[in-house]
Design brief:
Metallo-beta-lactamase, Chain A; about 240 residues; binds fe (ii) ion; five-stranded mixed beta sheet; six-stranded mixed beta sheet; 13 strands; alpha+beta
Length: about 240
């Protein structure tokens, strides 16, 4: 499966995935660019889908659907289908509620490694806001994501790299991996890997003892994995 990233709005990232000539837009807010890209590369936009229903992720849907013969697949429908065949590849979807109730992640293989399109569930350097207020559910969703191998690439729904690395500078200033992590930033193709995130992202390193000095100042219970994560989310 191939992937092309597009930027739109202040920080949003749209994706086009394709195999052979068959393509799917995920959070395709950069609709004109996506339609042009498909035209230039002989791709047939067959499907339009989203990582969740927030309005900053769906603004391209109508334009993509009216300008092409694509069909809309909602996040709920994607999860029911589990697998969307695309060319000779597979795009898998699984529910990751927490940021919203309808949040999902997509998984595919780009021929080099596994890849996740995570929407607002996991970003470079942070996780999404828990708008559902169901922190237990969000925690279990993140554990589904963290189960993938460390080389798995992460394609997030926003580029908020400056903000998240600023938070890391504050929470974890002595992290020896932070300088290299910052040096890997590319505005043209924002990607991270699960293994990189597990070295720097304070919001998924709930078992990392180096964060305990910071966490112990929060006055929250820290006995279980969930409690350690929940404490960190209080400063999210
Ligand atoms: Fe969102």
């Amino acid at each position: 499966m191939n992937i092309q990233q597009f930027r739109y709005g202040d920080t949003n990232l749209a994706y086009l995935l394709w195999d052979g000539i068959e393509a799917v837009a995920v959070d395709g807010g950069a609709a004109d660019e996506i339609i042009s890209f498909c035209g230039e590369n002989g791709l047939n936009l067959a499907y339009v889908t989203n990582t969740h229903g927030h309005s900053d992720h769906t603004p391209g849907n109508e334009h993509l659907l009216s300008g092409t013969s694509a069909s809309l697949i909602s996040p709920e429908e994607m999860c029911e289908m589990k697998v969307l065949p695309l060319g000779s590849s597979r795009l898998e979807a699984f529910p990751t509620p927490g940021h919203t109730n309808d949040s999902i992640c997509f998984y595919f293989n780009d021929g080099d490694s596994g890849c996740l399109v995570t929407g607002d569930t996991l970003f470079n350097g942070t996780v999404g806001n828990c708008y559902t207020k169901n922190y237990e559910l969000y925690f279990s969703s993140l554990q589904k994501v963290l189960r993938f191998p460390s080389e798995t690439k992460i394609y997030a729904g926003h580029d908020i790299f400056d903000y998240t690395t600023g938070v890391m500078d504050k929470i974890d200033p002595d992290n020896p991996f932070l300088a290299e992590y910052k040096s890997l930033y590319s505005k043209d193709h924002l990607v991270t890997a699960l293994g990189q995130e597990l070295k720097v992202n304070p919001f998924i390193r709930y078992n990392d003892k180096t964060l305990d000095a910071y966490r112990s100042g929060l006055g929250m219970p820290l006995k279980t994995e969930y409690e350690r994560w929940r404490a960190m989310m209080s400063v999210h």
